[in-house]
Amino acid sequence: MTSKKPEILIVDDNSANIGLLEAFLEPLGYVLSTAPDGKSALKIFNGKNIDLVLLDIIMPGMDGFEVTKRIRKNREKPYVPVILLSALNDSEDRIKGIKAGCDDFISKPFDRLELKARMKSLLRIKYLNDEVEKRTLLLRNIMNRYIVEDILDKMIDDPDRYLKPGGEKRCATVLFADIRGFTNFSEKRNPEEIMEVLSELFPKWMNAVLKNNGTFDKYLGDGIMAFFSAKKSDETNAYNAIAAAIDIKNEFEIQGYHKFGLGLGIGINSGEVFIGNIGSDAMMEYTVIGDPVNTAQRIESGALPGQILISENTRKLAGGKIKAKEIPAVKLKGKDHNVAVFELLEMV
């Protein structure tokens, strides 16, 4: 169990019943809060870090069933157990309590050992649920650094499909960004200085990708790879990739690394690819593969410092939202024919 002392909320309109529970629970090390009615109980519950509620049913104004229902509407505290303590002992009342959302039902006068055991059991379940929630939130926060929310939601909602080797064909826009002159730069500096530069640039580049609904794929030494496929519209994905490229270029120029002889080249291409988990059950990588990926990397390798080069496919998808000029057709490594490439000028 956690080192924090569990805080119990006692709700009863009879002060004698509250006093009886206080006398029993305080020596057990619980922190106690009390309320004489449903309205006060909900105010305390919503304002404090309550771990368990002991709730009377028959109270003036708002009965215990209604209080339970309202407690269950608090989405920020889904695992707080509610025990109904009541002189009512009819099976219909128990069923009504369960339907309202209570976790247990104990008849008055209660047996102290039974109440103690049931409270301990429910608090342990809450603690385990809280730990799972913390780990899930941590995992989500970690994964959100790499994968956009739309794709992450799919993985969580349907893990049997999305968390095993395999994937699907779909159109995506792939982006490569690489620092020019980095080898020369690295030869004249110690590892700490090199890491300082990359540590300053890479987080900003990743943020540019994620901000524009892209998925960060991997670091490639002094460059990155990302792809854009989260949105249903292929045109939107292409536009988002171009927007991310401009953000990346702007971040690089703001830092003024051109003073050290460094430049930045970016290449973008769109086409049908395979997106999914590559590898085995023991080790997988969520990535994108296919000829459009190779083409994007080849286009990036031909970009001069300061250039953002895009393929004809990407230019067509972006349509009238960008201005670009065609550069002389280039022969890309591994291609049998020249490929039309455009230099991005601006977004309209």
Beta-strand content: 25-35%
| CATH class categorisation of the largest domain | Alpha Beta
- In N-to-C order, the SSE pattern is EHEHEHEHEHHHEHHEEHEEHEHEE
Q: Give the count of helical stretches.
A: 12
Number of strands: 13
Instruction: Estimate percent helicity.
Output: 40-55%
Radius of gyration: 30 Å
User: Please, what is the CATH homologous superfamily of the largest domain?
Assistant: Nucleotide cyclase, GGDEF domain
Structural class comes to alpha/beta
Shape by Cα distribution: elongated
Biggest β-sheet, characterized?
A: 8 strands, mixed
| CATH arch. level architecture of the largest domain | 2-Layer Sandwich
Mean pLDDT: 87
Note poorly predicted spans.
none
CATH level-3 fold name of the largest domain: Alpha-Beta Plaits
Measured between the Cα atoms of the first and last residue, the distance is 58 Å
Q: How many domains, in number, for the residues?
A: 2
Report on the architecture of this protein.
- By secondary structure, this protein is an alpha/beta fold.
- It has 2 domains: 7-143, 3-Layer(aba) Sandwich (Rossmann fold); 149-347, Alpha-Beta Plaits, CATH 3.30.70.1230.
- 44% of the residues lie in helices and 28% in strands.
- It contains 12 helices and 13 strands.
- It has helices spanning 15-25, 38-47, 64-72, 91-100, 112-143, 149-157, 159-162, 182-187, 191-211, 234-255, 291-301, 312-318; strands spanning 7-11, 31-35, 52-56, 82-86, 104-107, 166-180, 215-219, 223-228, 263-279, 284-289, 308-311, 322-331, 338-347.
- Strands 6, 7, 8, 9, 10, 11, 12 and 13 form an 8-stranded mixed β-sheet that branches.
- α1 links the parallel β1 (7-11) and β2 (31-35).
- α2 runs parallel beside α3 and α10 (234-255) crosses α12 (312-318).
